[in-house]
Design a protein that fits this description.
Elements lengths: L2 H36 L11 H12 L4 H6 L4 H12 L5 H26 L2 H12 L2 H7 L11 H12 L4 H16 L4 H11 L1 H9 L3 H14 L1 H9 L1 H9 L8 H16 L18 H15 L5 H18 L10 H22 L4 H29 L4 H14 L5
Length: 414
Amino acid sequence: MLYYPKVMKKKLRLAVLYTWQPFTLGLIGILIVCFMLWFQLNSLVPGLSVDESRTQAQIASNTLTIRGIMSEPFYLPYNTLIYALQKTDAASITALRSASALIGVIGVVALYVILKYWYATRMAILGTVLFSTSSWFLHTARLGVSDISYILILVLIAAALWFQKSSRRKAYLATLVVLGAGLVYIPGMIWLLGAYFIWQFPKILKEIKKIQKQYLAIGFVLAGLFFMPLVSSFVRNPSSTLKQLLGLPDTVPAPGALLSNSRGLFTDVFVNGPADPSMWLPGTPILSIFSIVMFVIGVIWLLRSLRLERARAQLSAIAIASILIILGGPAPLAILIPFIYIICVAGLTYMLNEWFVVFPRNPIARTAGASLITVAVVMTSFYGVTRYYIAWPNSPDTKNSFQQQAVQSGTIDP
C-alpha cells in the first residue's frame, strides 16, 4: 500500500532535480524581457503616437463596445485586450501599451519553443536574445498599436510543434483551432494559416479521424459561432471584408507601384528603415549588419536544404509575407520580421556547425567558435537596445512627433 506513494515521491524528486535549473533560467529570461518591455513604458517618449491617441480616446470615452468590435472584427485578439482595459477604467499610457507588451512576452516565449524544436537549445537561447533585444521588437511591443498582433503566428507554430510530441491529441486539435480562428481576424494572416494547413494536412486529417463524431459536431458549432462576426461583416460589406481578410489593397497596384513597394521593403529592412519617426529611428535599417549577414547565410543554407520540412516552411512564410507587403495591403512589416529572425538563427546554426566540422575534436577551438558567436549576439543586442532606449527617444524627429501629438491630445494620464 505504501509502495505507490514512495514511487510517486521519487519521481517527483527526480522531476524537480532535472527541471529546476531550466525552469529557473527560463523564468529569469522572461523577467528580463518583462523588464525591457515595461521599463519607462509611459515616459520614454513625451506622449502618444497618432494611432495610440485614437485608441486612447476610445478607451477614455468608453466608446469601444462589443458590438463595435464585432461589427469591425479585424484585429480581434488585440481589440479584445483593449476592451478589457476599457472595462477596468485603465486609460493610461502604461495600460494602453501594456496590451502590446503582454503579447510581446507571449511571442518571445513562443519563439524560444520554435527555435528549440528546430535547432539546438544553445541556438534557441541566442536566437531569442537576438530577437527580444532587437530595436524592431522593442518598438512594436512597447507601442500601443495593433501591429504586435502578427507575432501571434509564432504562438500557433509553437503550439503545433509542442503538441506533436504530446499524447493529448484532442487538446492539440482544440488549441490549433482556437489559435487559428483568432488569427483569421488579423488581415493577411489567412495566407499563412492556409499554407500551414496544407503543410500539416495529412497529420491534421489523421487526428480528425480519431475524434468521435459528437465532439466533431460540437467543434463545428463552436467554430461557426466564432466566425459569426466575420460572416456578419462580409454580409454587410463583402468587398472590404474580403480585402481585409486576404490582406489585399483596395485597388490593384500598378507595376510601378509594385516595383516601388519592393524597393521600399528592401530599403526598410536592409538600408535605412521606415520613415515614420514615431515608430522607428529614421536612417537606420531594421536589421543590424550581423543580422543581415546571418539572414543571408540562413537563406542560402535553407535553399540548399529544401528536403527539410522546416526549410520549406520558413522560406514559404518569408515569400508569403513579402508578397503581402509588396502588394501594399494592410499587412505591415510585422508579418515578416519574426520569420526573418528565425532564418537568422538558421544562419547562426550553419556557421557554428561549419566551425565544428573544421574542429571536430579540438575543445579549445570549439569553445572559441561558440564564444565568438555568443559575443557577436551580445554586441548586436547591445546595439539594438541602445538604439531604441537612447538614440530613438533623443532624436529631434521623434520628440517632435510625440510632442505634437501630446499637444493635440491634451493632458494624458501616464
